[in-house]
Amino acid sequence: MARPKDTPIVDKSVWAAALEGLELQKSRLEEQIRQVRAILGAPRRGRPPASSSPLAVVASTTTASARSAKKRTLSPAARKRIAAAQKKRWEAFRKKKEASGEGQ
User: Fold this and answer.
1) In whole angstroms, how far apart are CA 85 and each of 24, 77, 78, 79, 98?
2) 9 — pLDDT class (breaks 50, 70, 90)
3) CB count, 10 Å around CB of 26?
4) Among candidates 65, 60, 61, which has minimal Cα distance to 48?
5) What pTM, to 2 d.p., does this model score?
6) Could you say which of 2, 30, 34, 78 has the lowest number of CB atoms within 10 Å?
7) Which H, E and C letters describe the chain, residue by residue?
8) Structure confidence by residue, pLDDT tens digits, 47-92
9) Cα–Cα distances in Å, from 63 out to 53, 55, 59, 67?
């Protein structure tokens, strides 16, 4: 970005201090926006932020391992029932398609 002609040349430390102050204001504004959204109950966009607390990390690893340990499997009889129901749905779909004259 080009510097406007009427802007005096300032030491880089001044610019660094100005940038630091603006970033501080930005973080304050972002925190206030988060608080207002929480009050309004506005839905979050994107992936939720990761928590940096050690307890949250331990809890998340515990629930992940517990989830994988509770993996549910279908019995062979249940698989057969599901397959039969799906075949029945497809058969009805094909009969309906033939009846309407689109069966080619």
Assistant:
1) 61, 12, 11, 10, 20
2) confident
3) 10
4) 60
5) 0.33
6) 2
7) CCCCCCCCCCCHHHHHHHHHHHHHHHHHHHHHHHHHHHHHCCCCCCCCCCCCCHHHHHHHHHHHHHHHHCCCCCCHHHHHHHHHHHHHHHHHHHHHHHHCCCCC
8) 776 765 555 555 555 555 556 667 889 999 999 999 999 999 999 9
9) 16, 12, 6, 6
The total number of residues shown for the chain amounts to 104
Dihedral pair phi/psi, residue 53, rounded to 5°: -75, 140
Place of tokens 């029932």: 81
Q: Can you tell me which residue has the tokens 């057969």?
A: 80
